[in-house]
Here is the input.
Amino acid sequence: MFVVDITNHGSSFARYASNKEYDVTGNSYSKNGELSPDGMKEMYALGQKFKSEYVDKQRFMSSRFDPASVYLHSVIDQSSLMSAYSFMLGAYPDSISYLNLNMENSLDHQKFVRKTLGLPETPGPQGGVAVPVNVEEGFMYWRDPAKTCPAVYQRMQSHLDAASQALNAEYKTKLYPELATLFKRPQDKLTFSTTHYYLDDYLVAKKYGFPYPQSQNQQRTDKFIEEYERDYYYDGLLGGNDNSRVIATPLLNYVLINTFAQGEVAKGTLTDTKLKLLKHSHFFADEVPFAAFLKAIGYPQ
Here is the structure.
């Protein structure tokens, strides 16, 4: 058996509302895009389910963390990396220390995760094993595609423009005027490319039960927002098939090659000690690579 997971990071705080233009609720919660306590608990619960299935029930994974049996890969952002850590704490709460990670204030972030989950801020008397995590850029996505991969960035902009021409008229009559009123912004500020940024703060507030501007027909508004967010990702950023394939190809290659190689190791036609020990590979992604992967395998919803 060889288990591969691709997981979108847990629920996070608003990412764009640190810019006052996109702060549409005026709430005082964190607006830096970091993993929320709810998101930490979501990923921790996912790790517990993993332990229940693959450690306790199947006895496939060791009861104590073995770095040789697990490959972790994450997008380089706090919410994805701390999702990986929260998951591993759920799976191996007593036998891991911290991520082997060179990130600013990474230890403080991880101690806060442990505290939020009701665990000691530092590992117990037996210490714990450091958890290797790979953060190679380009394997899943880039922090700044405009600089790192201009071709993909330009394609994204062209797809956003095309989707805007095709869909803007509909949203211009159904959604933008209502949001302009709710958010107290000029209507010309809300376009197919920009509405996503305004909705960030609004959707986070709504999710966590903070005050947010409500419309007279909230159900209708929610439906239009859901449709817009889907269109923004799948017809906008990832319009066509080119971007989703480019972004998802390294991950798909990894899955296919390693699955094939594991089969060869099992048959005895390939000798590879590292592959023989590897049992679980887990990738933690933000929305763009996660959506790209789903679209590339034909499951975009």
